[in-house]
Amino acid sequence: MPVIKRTSLNLDFDLVAQAREALGSNGTTDTVHRALEEVVRHEKLRWLAERDFSELTPEKLRELRATRIW
């Protein structure tokens, strides 16, 4: 479960409104959470895009999947 802490922020409400519209979110808290999630998602995707997966052959994938524990 995430740690939630009440805090005060100085926000540009025009920017919050633009983010709310872009994200389809409801309310300031939801908008800020969704925007933060998007930043983290974007960074993870950027990190993956920079990786070299040339050694990841179909055989290696089968081997990795066979040893995976759920």
What do you see in this structure?
By secondary structure, the protein is mainly alpha-helical. The protein is built from 3 helices and no strands. The longest helix is centred in the middle third of the chain and has 24 residues. The protein is elongated.
Mind sketching the topology for me?
Blueprint: H1 13-23, H2 27-50, H3 58-66
Helix pairs in contact: 1-2
What oligomeric state best describes the polypeptide chains here?
Answer: single chain
Radius of gyration, in angstroms, nearest whole number: 19 Å
> What order do the SSEs take from the amino end to the carboxyl end, as H and E?
HHH
What is the terminal-to-terminal distance? 21 Å
Shape: elongated
Task: Tally the beta strands.
Answer: 0
Uncertain spans = none
Number of helices: 3
Q: What structural category characterises the helix and strand content?
A: mainly alpha
What percentage of amino acids are in beta strands? under 5%
Could you estimate the helical fraction of the residues in percent? Answer: 55-70%
Report the major sheet. none
Output mean pLDDT. 94
